[in-house]
Write a structure and sequence with these properties.
The chain is of the alpha+beta class. The protein has two domains: 92 residues, no CATH class; 212 residues, no CATH class. The chain contains six helices and 13 strands. The strands form three sheets. It has a seven-stranded mixed beta sheet with strand order 1-13-2-11-10-9-8, with no helix packed on it. Strands 7-4-3-12 form a four-stranded antiparallel beta sheet. It has a two-stranded antiparallel sheet with strand order 5-6. The longest helix has 18 residues.
């Protein structure tokens, strides 16, 4: 490129920054591809023989600033030119674009947690009989308007969150399952953009991240599996077994599947092999349901609740739209 201090800004210089170089603002700011792109309005190139205007230069400078602010990435401070002023060379533009590209999966903040769902997310009737084995299967789908909307969601720092809970009583086995469900905490699925750890609202996310949980025997946590690592076959992203003998075969497991380019499917199974102490039974109570909208488990019944934290819209428009959540229990 001819872009040097003291030189004239040529169309090729500007276009390289905007769209044409290996790392450019457009790749992150607008459509991009795969794990690049926030879905914002694209910056147009200048014609080969054209003149770079103050307005065009200001748009690029402002977009750089917004990218840095959204990510929480420190870049060079600049003042955007205004019409009527001489357009001068700005230092370190290429360096800052490279930095922003490398940290594109980070976000300084998250949006407001979304907890509207259709269907049923709680098992309100008794499960099991005597000492027979049983399984509860919770199925959740998170559906986006388009493949690009899904990419923008995860690229800009969106998080899909899974919560587990049960507090109903009445059977011998209820206390064991109440404890196990309460030990999980939350399981958080991110895009794992740039195949690395992404920092969102000050928290490090590695792909699948368990937060606030303690206890049990964690047999699976797919820490390096995010949306971009999923396939059309279910991947177990989390499993927690009961740590107390003789109930160690009992577990809660969640699998994740990229059902299509627009649909994430999460299937959670609560499994009891029928093991119980002398004179006790393996069945558990139902209870009251957690109903929509909710971002916390408010009922007493066995529940797996899926919510999401959309990206922050302080510096971006919501190009990802409003994904929908559907739930069912069997």
């Amino acid at each position: 490129m001819t872009y040097t201090a003291g030189g004239l800004i040529q169309a090729a210089d500007y276009n390289g920054f905007a769209n044409d170089s290996a790392n450019n603002v457009g790749n992150i700011w607008s459509t991009g591809s795969t794990d690049k792109g926030y879905g914002q309005t694209a910056i147009s190139n200048v014609s080969v023989a054209g003149t770079v205007t103050a307005t065009q230069w200001a748009t690029l400078v402002n977009n750089l600033a917004n990218l840095g602010s959204h990510q929480g990435t420190a870049i060079t401070a600049r003042t955007a030119p205004v019409a009527g002023n001489t357009i001068t060379i700005l230092n370190a533009v290429a360096t800052d674009i490279n930095t922003l590209t490398g940290s594109r999966g980070n976000a300084a903040a998250s949006g407001t947690e979304y907890g509207i769902f259709t269907g049923t997310t709680s098992k309100t009737t008794v499960t099991g009989s005597g000492q027979a084995a049983w399984t509860i299967t919770f199925t959740h789908t998170v559906t986006f308007a388009s493949a690009d909307a899904l990419r923008y969601f995860f690229n800009a720092g969106g998080i899909v969150r899974i919560k587990y809970g049960k507090s109903s009583t009445g059977t011998d086995h209820d206390p064991d399952w109440n404890t196990l469900a309460g030990q999980v905490g939350t399981i958080n699925l991110t895009g794992r953009v740039n195949a690395t750890t992404n920092t969102i609202a000050g928290q490090a996310y590695t792909g699948t991240t368990r937060l606030s949980g303690s206890g049990g025997t964690q047999t699976t946590l797919a820490t390096t599996t995010g949306w971009y690592n999923l396939t059309g076959s279910p991947t177990t992203i989390f499993q927690l077994n009961n740590a107390s003998s003789p109930y160690t075969p009992e577990f809660i497991r969640t699998t994740a599947t990229a059902t299509s380019s627009t649909v994430l499917t999460l299937i959670t199974t609560w499994v009891d092999d029928g093991t119980s102490g002398a004179g006790t039974t393996a069945d558990i109570s139902g209870g009251t349901a957690t109903t929509s909208p909710s971002t916390t488990i408010t009922g007493t019944a066995p529940t797996t609740l899926v919510t999401y934290l959309p990206p922050s819209t302080t510096y971006l428009s919501a190009a990802w739209g409003t994904p929908t959540i559907a739930a069912s229990v069997a």
